[in-house]
Prior knowledge:
By secondary structure, the chain is α/β, with parallel strands linked by helices. It has helices at 9-13, 33-46, 60-73, 75-90, 151-162, 183-192, 213-224, 237-258; strands at 99-108, 117-119, 124-134, 139-146, 173-176, 195-198.
Amino acid sequence: MRYTTDLTDAEWQLIHYCFPKPSKTGRPRKHSYRELLNAMFYAVRTACQWRNLPKDFAPWRTVYHYLRVWKHTGLWEQIHTHLREHLRQVEGRQRQATAGIIDSQSVKSTECSGQRGYDAGKKVNGRKRHVLVDTLGLVLLVLVLPANIQDRDAARQLLALFFGQSSRRSLKHIWADGGYAGLLVAWARKLWRCTVEIVKRTDAHAFRVLPRRWVVERTFGWLGRYRRLNRDYERQARTGECMIHVAMIRLMLARLARS
């Protein structure tokens, strides 16, 4: 049986070479990488529990095992970066982004979640996703932290991770909302020569499309289509980051296959 989340032949051709080659020794793998990916995409899109995966897929323990292995080896991030750079070139942009937008999203978490906190502003008990995207809305980096951590404090951790790799030093300008104002602006300019521009609301009582900030809000809208991300169900925050990468990989594969 075919599901709407299954990879097409064109989509699979975009990433099939990213996975490890079959070993020449030992027992042959029973389930293909494509079959395992279809099960993972189904779980993220429908918020299905691992134990309740349909019988058409591989056993749930096998699917979850490979999800964890690829999370620890960094394969999800490698595939995500590869597709993002490919899509940027298709859209006529450079491979590396020179400008981005930063924002956060508070989501409720379940009782099985490890670290969580209370966001007094949004009145949410759970976790907060801090996301840095490029001007196309594609995720450059995501960091999941307890919801009680302030945006400017989390942004310091996010940018330290992002600029920690030399390949990411091309980012020179970031747009942010008023929650990031303060020492973060001078800190980013001093350490990485990156300017942070605060885009403030002009009218608090009326709807206005704010310059550049709408891009990251659209990204949160894309992620909201994947029901697993409407609430943080993961025990570890790093698994929550992995789920966002999985959702963005599925989204970018669909866009690249259409183009």
